[in-house]
Amino acid sequence: MKVEQIYTGCIAHAAYYIESNGEAAVFDPLREVQPYLERAQIDNATIKYVFETHFHADFVSGHLDLRKKTGADIVFGPEAKPAYDAIIATDGQIFEVGNYKVKVIHTPGHTMESTTYLLIDQLGNEHGIITGDTLFIGDVGRPDLAQHVVSDLTEEKLAGHLYDSLRNKIMPLDDNLIVYPNHGAGSACGKMMSKETTDTLGNQKKFNYALQEMSKDEFIKAVLTGLTTPPGYFPQNVLMNIKGYESLDTIIDRATKPLDPEAFEIIANETGALMLDTRDAEVFAEGFIPNSINIGLDGNFAQWVGEMIPDVKQEILLITDPGKEEETITRLSRVGYDFTIGFLKNSFSSWKESGKDFETITRISPQQLEAEYKMGQPLVFDVRKKSEFSSEHLLGAINVPLNEINQHLAQFPKNKPFILHCAGGYRSMIAASILKQRGWQDFSDVRGGFAQITETTVPRSEYVCPTTLL
User: Fold this and answer.
1) Could you tell me the pLDDT band of residue 354, with boundaries at 50, 70 and 90?
2) Nearest to 224 by CA among 128, 283, 147, 278
3) What's residue 469's pLDDT?
4) Phi, psi of 307 (to 5 degrees)
5) Which long-range contacts (CB under 8 A, 24 or more apart) does 296-300 make?
6) Model confidence pTM above 0.90
7) Would you tell me which of 113, 262, 369, 430 could form a disulfide with 79, CB atoms 3.0–4.6 Å apart?
8) How confident is the model at residue 468 (pLDDT cuts 50, 70, 90)?
9) What is the Cα–Cα distance from 22 to 46, expressed in whole angstroms?
10) What is the 3-state secondary structure (H, E, C) of the chain?
11) How far apart, in whole angstroms, are the C-alpha atoms of residue 158 and residue 151?
């Protein structure tokens, strides 16, 4: 049986495509559906079903647009209550895709409607399971997200359901089945996912911590320990997936409005739109529009947009590298940010050439930081995650994780200089742009971040392996 994984690294997302005898099905598609349409066209196949494993929190699914363009039926598992027409399957129900069969296995725990799909080939052999966020490679879905949407659920109750689903529904299945999860390492839907994106169920029974022998109470403690606060956009994405959303075509049409510097400035002032600059950190530092925020497109863009912009309905004006406008709009829409209202024509160069004011951010090399330490103890802020900081950090540095910076602005002094760094320079430039927007001036950012600082003599704490940290 051929199962094609269509993986999108920037949000660590996996969709799946199967085809048999001219009929196809797509599982957990992204917002932009053209790749799935093109894939089916290659096979001269009709997309018959769009299977959803659950109401996703970390991205807006493409199920509605895919149905609109193909006429495919949307399928959810038991207990799903979408605000649009869909097939709500029963536990054990079987769907036919050409000569293949897809069996519904209700596996509540990550969410109450979470469902695993068992794939059966043309000979009747069980091939694999598309697990959504129920079972990852090396991890399981965090059971604390649905409670942010459904008030009578608790993370403990959901974790208990997940324990039962794994023990009673997943683990009795054949060891040779291939596990096809919805996410890999880098997703915020789990805490210790592998960089591998498929494995056999037998291997997962051996090596996945959540599938080892333990009581339900022990399981609940294990899966809830060490969870970070979920990004604020997660509940908003869930509601969009439940209630529906505008077509991506409509969003792109509305957003792709080139604006000259004068019009850009007028609209920014009149609307209060967020000016989002997606250029590389080094380029941004050399010159940017006052009050704009930098989140580079060539990093974990969608994740950090979701972390740093609390409202998906925030109006956005873009400054991108020329030709990257539509890609940026699409990647914003993947996580529900549908209200881009225009972009700066010819990027920042047109702003600079117009003679309008712009700002810069001072970047220093690791060697310059080393020199600062030799002269005395500089004030250093490390904006990496707590676990990264606990693993190893510069002696005397203060940890303010980037996703918490708005809650800890008072820690940054305005009357004395300080230095920012992260792991490689991407996150610290986001932090620097936020601080500039809020009025801080006397600081610098370390080019290359901690990765390059470790090549100097700057004193560091003793290294602790991250796998031993909660």
Assistant:
1) very high
2) 147
3) 42
4) -70, -40
5) 296/426, 296/429, 297/321, 297/324, 297/327, 297/328, 297/331, 299/426, 300/10, 300/186, 300/426
6) yes
7) 113
8) very low
9) 6
10) CCEEEEEEHHHCEEEEEEEECCEEEEECCCCCCHHHHHHHHHCCCEEEEEECCCCCCCCCCCHHHHHHHHCCEEEECCCCCCCCCCEECCCCCEEEECCEEEEEEECCCCCCCCEEEEEECCCCCEEEEEEECCECCCCECCCCCHHHCCCCCCHHHHHHHHHHHHHHHHCCCCCCCEEEECECCCCCCCCCCCCCCCEEHHHHHHHCHHHCCCCHHHHHHHHHCCCCCCCCCHHHHHHHHHHCCCCHHHHHHHHCCEECHHHHHHHHHHHCCEEEECCCHHHHHHCECCCCEECCCCCCHHHHHHHHCCCCCCCEEEECCCCCHHHHHHHHHHCCCCCEEEEECCHHHHHHHCCCCCECCEEECHHHHHHHHHHCCCCEEECCCHHHHHHCCECCCEECCHHHHHHCHHHCCCCCCEEEECCCCHHHHHHHHHHHHCCCCCEEEECCHHHHHCCCCCCECCCCCHHHCC
11) 12
CA atoms of 127 and 147, how far apart (whole Å): 33
User: What is the structure's pLDDT at 186?
Assistant: 79
Structure tokens at 372: 């600062």
Across residues 281-294, what is the average pLDDT?
A: 98
**What pLDDT score does 187 carry?**
81
Cβ pair 55, 84 in contact under 8 A: no
Whether residue 153 is predicted with pLDDT greater than 80 in this model: the reply is yes
Q: Which structure tokens are listed for 159?
A: 């974790």
Tokens standing for residue 322 = 């020329």
Q: Cα separations (Å) of 401 from 10, 302, 434?
A: 20, 17, 13
Nearest of 446, 425, 418, 429 to residue 360 by alpha carbon: 429
